[in-house]
## 1
Amino acid sequence: MIENAHIYFNQSGTPVADKFDDIYFSIDNGLAESTFVFVEKNKIIERLHDHDQNHFVIAETGFGTGLNFLNTWQQFENSDNKTVKKLHFISFEKYPIKKSDLVKSLAAWPNLKPYTEKLIALYPVAMQGCHRLEFASGTIVLDLWFGDIKDTLPQICFQEKGIIDAWYLDGFAPSKNPDMWQQSLFNAMADLGRDNCSFATFTASGFVRRGLIKAGFNVQKHKGFGRKREMICGQLTKANDKFSEPKYYPREGVNINKIAIIGGGIATASLALSLSKRDAQFEVFCKDDQVAMGASHNHQGALYPHLQANFSRESQFYAHSFFYARRCFDEILTQGYTFPYQWCGVLLHGINAEKQKRQQSLIEQNNWPNELISYVSPEQASDIANVVTPYSGLFIKHGGWINPPKLIEAMLSYSQANKLFTINTKIKIEKFYQKANLWYLFDGKIEHGPYSQVIVAAGEHSDTFKQTKSLDLHPVRGQVSHVKATEKSAEISTVLCHKGYITPQYLNHHCIGATFTKNSKETHISEDDNNINLKQVTDFYGECEFTDDLNDITSAKAAIRCTSFDHMPLIGQITDIKNYQKSFATLRHGSKYGYLSYNSSTSGLYIFTGLGARGLCSAPLGAELLCSEMFNEPLPIDLAMSEALHPARFIVRDLKRNKI
Ligand code: SAM
C-alpha cells in the first residue's frame, strides 16, 4: 500500500517532507531554480525544435508537488515553432502528496494557476503503479508512477533504443535520501536513455558524478543556482543495448501510414480515442447497420473494477483501467459530448458468508486505497442504496452505470472532432492479406486499402480470420433483462451487485442480469434467461421492499462476450505461430537464450479483444496501451502487466511446457 507524504509548511510557507526533513522547493525562487537546473541544463526548449520523434520524453525522480512538471508544461506550451507535438513526462513518486497539501503547496505559484488547476483535477489516488493523465487534448501526457523508484524503474518496458530523452534527477539531497541515490538508479537511467539522452541535477556530489559516469553518461560541472556552488548535467551519447521486454513478448513501435480497424464496439471507440489524439490516419469497418450493436449494446452497463484481495496484476490492471476510463469519459463529458450515465457508485453486496469472508479479507489485506473501495456496514449500505437491504458490502464510490451505445457514439464524435476518420458500417470484412508489405481488406466484393496496419477489435468475431483463428478465444453468451421500475424500486440510488447486478432505474426500467452461458454464440432472447435474471434479484433481495411487484420484464438484450482462457484481454501483435515456434524453440528447454530473430509474416497485424464483460472498464487503457506501443511511446502499464496482456502468452506457455 502506498503511503502519502507527511508534510508541514514552515514559517515562510515552504512545504517540508517530514520523512526526509527537506524542502520540496524554495518558496523564493523554486520556479527559477526548476528552470535553471532542469529545463535549461537539459536544453529542453532548444531540443523541441530539432527532435527525431513527435514526442519528447522527460523522466523525473520524485514528483513531489509537480512543480517541475508544471513549469516544463508551461514552457512547452509557450515555445513557438517546435517540431515536437507531444510532451511525455514520466515521474516517480514514493510518497505522493495528499491532494489538499498539493493545493496548498502550489498556491505559491500564481503564474502556473491554469496548469495547476488541471493537475489537481486529475491528481490520482495513492495506488501503486502507473497513472496516465492527459492534458491539453492529449498533447501533454503525465505518467505518474507511484511506488519506490527502486521497485518501479525495473518494471518499465523499454527496448534497446531506449525511451527517455532527458532526466530530471531530483529527489531531495543525497545526504537526506541516500536510499534513492544509488548506482542502480544511475544504471537504470542509462539503460532507459535514448541516443543523446541528457540529465541534470542540482547536486554535484562526487559519488553522484562518478556513478553517472560509470553508468555511461558524460558529466559536466556548472555553477549552481543562486548561492549553490556547483551542479552537474550531461549526456549519454548512444543508447546502450539493454532491454526489458523478453523478445518473445515484442512491443516495438512501427511506421504508421494508415490503420484499418475491424470492429464497432467499445474496443473500436477506445482505439479511435487514442488514435485521434495522436493525429493518426485510420478507418473503421463495422459489419452492422450501426456501431455498438454487439456486446456494447446494453441499456446500462456497470463501470467498476474487478478487484481481488491480493494485489494481483489482473486486479492492478482493472484498477488502473477503471480510473483511466473515468478520466476519459469525464473528459468527453466536459467537452460537451453527452451520454446517459450516473456516477452513483457500485455496491458489491456480501450476499452470503463466503462472499462476506472474501470481502473481509480484501479489507484486511489493505492493498487498495479506501478512495477506491471501502467496507460499508448493512446500515451504511442501505443508506447508500437508498433502499433497505440486509447486507454489508464493499462500495466503489467512483463507479456507476453508463449507456454503452450512446457512450460509444460520444467517444466516436469526440474522436472525429480531434481527427476526421471514416466509419464504414454494413461492411463485413471476410479476409485481409498483404501485398508488397501493405495490408488490404476484402469484403467479398471490394478490396479496401492499402493500410500499414490492421487492428482486429471485433469481439466474438475476432477469430474468424485466417491469421487469428488459432487465438484462444471463448464466447460467453450473456442476456440482460429490462424490468419495469416500481415506486419502491425507483428509489435505488446505486448499482447493486449480488451475483449479478441491478441498476438504478433509467427510462423507468432497471437493467438486471446477466446470464453467463459458456461456449454459446446464440443471441436470441430467452424467456428462461429472463426468469433466471429475475429470480436472482428476488432470491437475494426477496425480503427487501423494493422487490415487491418487481416482475414486469418488458425487453431484454442478448450478446456474446469474447473472453480469454485467463480472463485478461489480448492486446498487441498477432503472433505468427509457425515462425514463433522456430524463433523461440529453446523456450521448450527452459532456456533464456539462443533465440533466433523473429520474422513475422503477420507484421502490422494487431489484436484487441477478450474484454469479456469488462470492456467499459478495460477498453480505454487497453487501447492506450496498444497505441503507445505502435507509436513507440512509453507504455502506460508495467512489464508484468504487459506480459499478462500479450497475445503471445498462450503460445509462450505452451512452448515452455513443451506442448507445441
Ligand atoms: N520534483 C519535485 C517538484 O517539482 O515538486 C520536487 C521533488 S522533492 C524535492 C523529492 C521527491 O522525491 C519527494 O516527493 C519524495 O517523496 C520523492 N522520493 C524520494 N525518494 C524516492 C524514491 N525512492 N522513489 C520515488 N520517489 C522518491
## 2
Amino acid sequence: MSKNKSSIKTKKAKLIINNHTYEFPIYNSTEGESVIDISKLHSLAKIFTYDPGFTSTASCESKITYIDGDKGILRYRGFDIEDLANKSDFIEVVNLLIYGDLPNKEQLKKYKELITRHTLLHEQIINFFQGFRRDAHPMAMMVGVMGALSSFYQDSLDIGDAHQRQEATRRIVAKSSTIGAMAYKYSIGQSFISPKNNLSFSENFLHMCFSNTAEEYKVSPVLAKAMDTIFILHADHEQNASTSTVRLAGSSGANPFACIAAGVSSLWGPAHGGANQAALEMLEEIGSSKNINKYIRKAKNKNDPFKLMGFGHRVYKNYDPRAKILKKISRKVLKHVGVKNDPILKLATDLEKVALRDKYFIEKKLYPNVDFYSGIILRAIGFPPEMFTVIFAIARTAGWTAQWTEMIEDPIQKIGRPRQLYTGEKFMVYGKNRSKKNTK
Ligand code: ACO
C-alpha cells in the first residue's frame, strides 16, 4: 500500500500451502471489512487466488463511497445518502464525489457554471445519431455517442495532466445529459432540443426531453426535484460492475470518454442498471396482485430463469436505502401528476410485502433494490422504460469520473490484469489432434 493511504496495518494473515507458511499483511478500513494484501502471493508461492464474480476481492483502495450492506447504509465521502437526497442537489454531489468535500457557495456557483457551459454538443455529433436506427435502444446510442466523444476533444487527451482530467470529467457529466435527451428525441422522431443555461441540471434534462420545437415544456419543481433526487441516488455505488469496468478500461491509460462508454455498456445489462427497465416490465407482466403468488413461485424455482427484478443485491443484505427514499418519492410524484391509485405502485407494494414475508427471500436476504421503485417515478414523469437505464447512466457519470480520477491519481495504480484457472487442453499437435466436438 502506498504511503498516503489511511489504512492501518495491524495483523497478519497466515496461509499454509504444502506445509509452508506464508504471511500477508491485513489492512483495516476506516469502516467496514479489512483486507488481506495478497499482491505478493504469486511471487512467493506460485499460486493464484480464485474468486469468480469477485465476491471476496477488493480490487482497489477508495475514499469515495461507503456501503454497509447489512445495515443498509450508503454514504458518499462520509455523507449519508438520505441527507444528501434531502439537502443537496446533483451537481453539488458530483463536486463532492470528484473533489472529496462539499464546495462552499462560491465554488459551487462556479462549478455549476462550468458544467452548464459544457452541455452543448459539437454539431458533428448529430451525424452519429443519423447512423442509428430509430428503433435502436437509447442505451445503444448512449454507448456509441459517448465512445465517439473520444474523437472530439484534442485539448484534453493527456490524462497525466490534472487540469485536462478535470476538463474531461466536466464534459462527461455535462454532455451525458444532452446525449441521453438526444437519444430519446431520436427514438421518438423529434428534433433535438438545445440545452438552456438558465435551468438547473435536472430541469434542463427534462426540458431537453420534453420540450419540442412547437411547445416549451414547463418544468414542474416537484418533478425537477424528483429527477434530481434520482440522479443523486444513482451517482455512485463503489466498485460495482460498471465502475469496475471503467477502472479496468482506464487502467491501460485509455481515453476517458472511451472508458465511460465501456461503463455504459456494463450498466446496460439486466443484472445491473438494466434492472430498472426490467422491473417495470415485470410489474406490467404480472399485471395484478392476484398473480403475485404465481410469480413468487417462478422466482423461487431453480429451473425457471425468472427472477424478481429490482430485488436482491450483491452488497445489500437489508433494504437498499435508495429504494426507501424512492418509495416515498413515488407517492409524491404520482399525487403531483394526478394519479390517485396507481395500479403499478399498488402491485409493487403488494409484491414487496409478499416477498419480504416469504422464507426464500428472508433466508437469502433479498430486499427491494434501487431499481424496484425508480421506474414507477420515471414513468410518472413521462419516460418510456427504455430511457430508465439511460437516466441511470447519466447519474453514474458522476461516480465513474470520480472513481476514474481516483484511480489515475493513485500512485500504486497499475494496469488491471486478473489471472485464471486454466482447465483447457494440454499441448496439442496441429494436424494430429482434430476435435470431435467441432462437428456436434
Ligand atoms: N429473485 C429470485 N432469486 C434471487 C434474486 C431475485 N431477484 N436475486 C438473487 N436470488 C437468489 C439467487 O438465485 C441465489 O440463489 P441460490 O443461492 O439458491 O443459488 C441467491 O439468491 C443469491 O443470489 P446471487 O445471484 O448469487 O447473488 P449475486 O450477488 O450474484 O447477484 C443480483 C445479485 C445480480 C443483483 C441478483 O440479486 C439479481 O439478479 N437480482 C435481479 C436483478 C436486479 O434487480 N439487479 C439490480 C441490482 S442493483 C443495481 O445494479 C443497480
